[in-house]
Amino acid sequence: MLDIKNLMVFFENALALNDLSMMVNEGEIVGVIGSNSAGKTTLMNTVSGLIIDMKIKEQRKGGERITVYGKITFQGEDITDVKPNDRVEKGIVLSRERHPIFPESDVMENLKIAGHMKKMSELREMTEYVFQLFPALFDLKKRKAGFLSGGEQQMLAIGMALIVKPVLLLLDEPLLGLSPHLQSALVKAIKNLRSESGITILITEQFARPVLPIIDRGYVIENGMLTLTGTGTELMENPEIKAAYFGI
Ligand SMILES: Nc1ncnc2c1ncn2[C@@H]1O[C@H](COP(=O)(O)OP(=O)(O)O)[C@@H](O)[C@H]1O
Ligand SMILES: [Mg+2]
Hints:
The chain is 41% helix and 26% strand. The protein has eleven helices and ten strands. The model has no long low-confidence stretch (mean pLDDT 91).
């Protein structure tokens, strides 16, 4: 479904992604594991197309030069130069790390804002689905988003991505800053999301432990380069992973 070929991203002369190739099949949950500044967010920004906007913005203000090489194919179509909004139309939706929600609006309003281009009937259907997936949010419908806990905000951010009915959902470090308890609740919700709705998911994470059990396949990246790949089980049993990410 998603095919990334020989992706290279430069910020000026610094190489953030180095000849990265990976693919995601329909219905899969695929993980990208990498330590801080490995290139996870750059990868997500490139797949969602946000990097195109970043590039134009930098060009306008005469800032740093962002260069992207490689090819991204989505459902057989070359989308390398397709703008982020058009990628959303095609079903590629990114839920970013540190969730940009609207703190002054309540939970219900945030969901409506996220789904503003959807038809009323579809919006209602997807809102119900989000509440079914995250029952905690239903009880907080009227609460201002700024007063939610970190975990609740994260659920809302994912809910806002789901409202537009993604085909491919990109989750950039959704577990960042959550307590172990909330991490396992969110991981469970992500797993249910795939089994109930069939949405394909690409998820990045710094810590392998919570996500390896739910991913079908994973890629480990270091300094923008692919170092290891395998099924979730293979990665969990890999001695290097155990040493680096499990402290065994
Ligand atoms: N806008 C930017 N300008 C310059 N360098 C950047 C920019 N964004 C990311 N980088 C660099 O690219 C590398 C990858 O960063 P990032 O994709 O944010 O990693 P991660 O999300 O895995 O922590 C890092 O070395 C980071 O410093
Ligand atoms: Mg990041």
